[in-house]
UniProtKB/TrEMBL annotation:
<dbReference type="InterPro" id="IPR001509">
    <property type="entry name" value="Epimerase_deHydtase"/>
</dbReference>
<dbReference type="GO" id="GO:0004029">
    <property type="term" value="F:aldehyde dehydrogenase (NAD+) activity"/>
</dbReference>
<dbReference type="Pfam" id="PF01370">
    <property type="entry name" value="Epimerase"/>
</dbReference>
<feature type="domain" description="NAD-dependent epimerase/dehydratase">
    <location>
        <begin position="9"/>
        <end position="222"/>
    </location>
</feature>
<dbReference type="InterPro" id="IPR051783">
    <property type="entry name" value="NAD(P)-dependent_oxidoreduct"/>
</dbReference>
<protein>
    <recommendedName>
        <fullName>NAD-dependent epimerase/dehydratase domain-containing protein</fullName>
    </recommendedName>
</protein>
<dbReference type="InterPro" id="IPR036291">
    <property type="entry name" value="NAD(P)-bd_dom_sf"/>
</dbReference>
<dbReference type="GO" id="GO:0005737">
    <property type="term" value="C:cytoplasm"/>
</dbReference>
Length: 324
């Protein structure tokens, strides 16, 4: 019989990168994991989760899946950045309503989108949120609704992170910008100036952090925020250098580092939603954006941290860019 710690979590978006990583980590800790998904099927590493068919846009589906949950991980996003303005906030509202009904804590994997240039380069939990993009404005609205919900019967934990990478990462710069999934790495398309720092968040480390925080639920405030430092690279191009090292270590020829084709993104953005969204976020590559994790380290004692080359190797292997 599988071990259990008596806790139940509903993961909305368990087939995605962050949701799936958190679900797998909590399963390992003995949680009962429910996974809400629209289609049939699951991930191999989540075979023991309870998969529930439903739609995050349907309030009744979310409420039904949340019955008995102590925690709801809200890790769902519209695929390909499509219709953010129409879908993101209604999905958030459905999670909030379900959490209030059962008294659950909502966990939101946050991003740096809700910060504008006035808060850069070093972001703390108290930095001003003055976004300059549509997605950033939506992120701010999500957090405002969560703060209000924390006064109305729900509890909230937000872990803000840099760019995600890792197994099953889904929409992310690593797999959509730097390399091409399913193909050997012969070149690496880097989106920013080489000397500008950049923050990355390795999914298994993020999931481990969430698990450790939830293990100390009684010590968390009703509305709690932490910043995840992750892999802060003072020279942003060091992520591309790490990819080069890993490819060579696996017997491949050293890939070249090229400049990301922003000109092509600009030309195609009126017609391709994803390109339009990528172009909107270009400012995050033009200036350093670092998440200060002093609060998180003070609370946990340390931040989970997989060595960069090991994390990159796992990510590339999962993406089909390296032999297993």
């Amino acid at each position: 019989m599988a071990k259990t710690n008596g806790k139940t979590v509903l993961v909305v978006g368990a087939k995605g990168g962050v949701g799936g990583a958190v679900a797998a980590r909590l399963l390992a800790d003995g949680w009962t994991v429910k996974a809400l998904a629209r289609g049939r099927g699951s991930r191999a590493d989540l075979a023991t989760a309870q998969w529930i068919q439903g739609d995050a846009m349907n309030a009744a589906d979310v409420a039904r899946a949340a019955a008995g949950a102590d925690v709801i991980v809200h890790a769902v996003n519209p695929p390909g950045y499509k219709d953010w303005d129409k879908l993101v906030l209604p999905m958030m509202d459905n999670t909030i309503a379900a959490a209030k009904a059962v008294g659950a804590r909502i966990v939101l994997p946050g991003t740096v989108y809700n910060y504008g240039p006035d808060a850069q380069p070093d972001l703390t939990e108290e930095s001003p949120q003055n976004p300059v993009t549509v997605k950033g404005g939506i992120r701010v609205a999500m957090e405002r609704r969560l703060r209000q919900a924390s006064t109305e019967g729900a509890r909230v934990l937000i872990l803000r992170c840099g760019d995600f990478f890792g197994p099953h990462a889904g929409n992310n710069w690593f797999g959509q910008g730097l390399v091409k999934p399913g193909k050997a790495v012969t070149s690496i398309s880097y989106p920013g100036p080489h000397a500008v720092g950049h923050a990355w968040a390795y999914l298994p480390d993020v999931a481990e952090t969430v698990a450790r925080l939830l293990a100390r639920e009684s010590e968390l405030a009703a509305f709690e925020t932490f910043h995840f430092g992750g892999h802060w690279l003072e020279r942003g191009v060091d992520m591309a250098r790490a990819i080069q090292r890993v490819v060579v270590a696996r017997g491949g020829r050293q890939p070249t580092i090229t400049t990301f084709p922003w000109w092509l993104v600009t030309l195609a953005s009126p017609f391709v939603t994803m390109f339009r969204e990528l172009r909107e976020m270009r400012y995050l590559w033009q200036r350093p954006v670092r998440l200060e994790n002093a609060k998180l380290k003070a609370f946990l004692g340390s931040e989970p941290h997989t060595p960069l080359d090991q994390a990159v190797a796992t990510t590339l292997t999962d993406a089909g860019c390296l032999p297993a």
